[in-house]
Write a structure and sequence with these properties.
CATH superfamily of the largest domain: Alkaline Phosphatase, subunit A
Number of domains: 2
Membrane topology: Multi-pass membrane protein
Helix content: 40-55%
CATH class of the largest domain: Alpha Beta
Number of strands: 18
Structural class: alpha/beta
Subcellular location: Cell membrane
Pfam families: Sulfatase
Distance between the termini: 61 Å
Largest sheet: 9 strands, mixed
GO cellular component, one term: plasma membrane
Radius of gyration: 27 Å
Organism: Tahibacter soli
Shape: globular
Amino acid sequence: MSLIASVWPRFRPLAWFAAVFFALSTATRLALLVATGDGVGFAPSYWLYAFAVGAVYDAATFVYFAWPLVLFLWLVPRRAYEGRFGRAGLAALCFALVFALVFVAGAEWTFWDEFQTRFNFIAVDYLVYTNEVIGNIRESYPIGAILVGVAFATTCLFLAGRRWRRPADATSTFAQRSVFALAWLAASVVVTFALRSDLKERTGNEYVNQLAGNGVYEFFAAFRASELSYPRFYRTLPGDEAFAQLRRLLQTPDARYVSDDVADITRDITADKPERKLNVVLVSIESLSAFYSGVYGGHPSLTPELDRLSDESLRFTRLYASGTRTVRGLEALALSVPPTPGESIVKRPHNENLFSMATVFNEKGYVSEFLYGGYGAFDNMNYFFGNNGYVVRDRAAIAPEKIHQANIWGVADEDLYTLAIEDFDRLHGEGKPFFAHIMTTSNHRPYTFPEGRVDAPQGKRESAVRYTDWAIGDFLRRAKEKPWFDDTLFVITADHCASSGGIASLPVFRYHIPLWIYSPRNVQPGTFDRIVSQIDVGPTVLGMLGMSYRSRFYGADVFRLEPGRERAFVGNYQRLGLLRNDTLIELAPARHVGAVTPDYDKNSPQPKTALDPQLAREAMSYYQTASYLFSNGLLAADLAGKADVARQ
């Protein structure tokens, strides 16, 4: 009798599980495809690609996912397998595996709805913070009904084809089953080394590329890629050349290098106006896309308060966020550094004592604060800011009786602003100027806020935007009554946009965020219409204050930057972009370097364009050197001005 004939009765449940697995995977892909709407549309070639390539990734995932069942079928002795233990154990394991599949399918739907992508680094990050994530799920969705639905669907699938799961094994020996298990192990090894997540990214539509993947596979691929070595995965320049290029790019009319060391980016910044010791309040609003605001083209506008503020503010019309997560926005605003690949610096080891906005303000005699509406242990925020010159105040500093409303992410924005005003009153009373970075939370799922503030239903993103806008207006009205108001610069922007996915790999329109600088006594209203990177916000504010200081920032004061040198940095955890001269240079793992024409206004394909070698070298020098300097401890606040570059 052949080996296959001998082991087939024992491993027949594996065929049943394969049918269930592929049916659910295909149904999930179809549901997500329909959810993209016009993002893919009726394009037969795209559909064929998504399902054909998707079947490959499904098969690879099945090889991994089925291991618990393979082990059970391999190891349980024949007598036990056909007895009560075998029947009960097999049934329980199969039910658990199917339940997991159905649950993951539902989770993928909600994740796609929020981020327009399969599981990625965001899902990996969220897994670390189970309290916030589970709390968010409980507050956002009817968990009881969902679990009942998952259990019902699991039961239906479990009962279907149950005769294929009946324990039967008349002839197999342990040695024969071991051959099968060894073959499964060999298949696992082949899949591990022959398949990568990025191999599916072969179309010009990122939705299609994502649909061609498998959520479970993508989750573990993102987990493995959370720490990406730039020199290992990306195109590089020789070390001296990269830093020489960077020094040229960072050279501005207001800057003078303090050293001839090619790897030292330390510069003395000389202001062109007298210094004004104004307070600075930097408000980074959760997920505030520019298109929510009427003055940025939103229709209808969800931000009437900010729209009215525009007539009294300096408004920047073309500001682009560095990334798609809060920690990327915080990194850009605090450190003025491009988004290095993998995890944000905010969450990486050895991120203490970095050159930051607080470094500059503290040397000028300011008190620097980071104020957050949630618990700052999330995303390592308290540790990062607390070890980089900021006094940290989070939700724990707010007395319960002062909280009007809270959810798992934090207190209502108005309560955070009350904490801020109390701190500003105290600091002003002590005669201390202050720099405060306020990070809000209300514009985040589950989108709940105090009743009676805006005429909008709870639980809707648009409603949360309206409340966020109301709260900033209320904050400024209260601030106007304070003695420190006339001497304060209010800088109002976003950490990132509301959505990150799109047809393009780096959809530029998704990175467009607003920026208002408001101080009636000190800032002339108007608009600034050149491209600005999020990493430029800090140096530009310092320039407006007339501050001369020693800098290790990558960003620039955009008012001192010569016309034509504008650029912005946009990225996700793997793909890095340099936006300049209406071209987007893209760097990606496997040493990919490409160029596309960005679409600033809508979700559309960004066609490939001829690669400008000089722009490509500029992109590589920015990202390569930023990764090198951080990894080697050379972004520190207390360097004496000397750095040593690896001569590669």
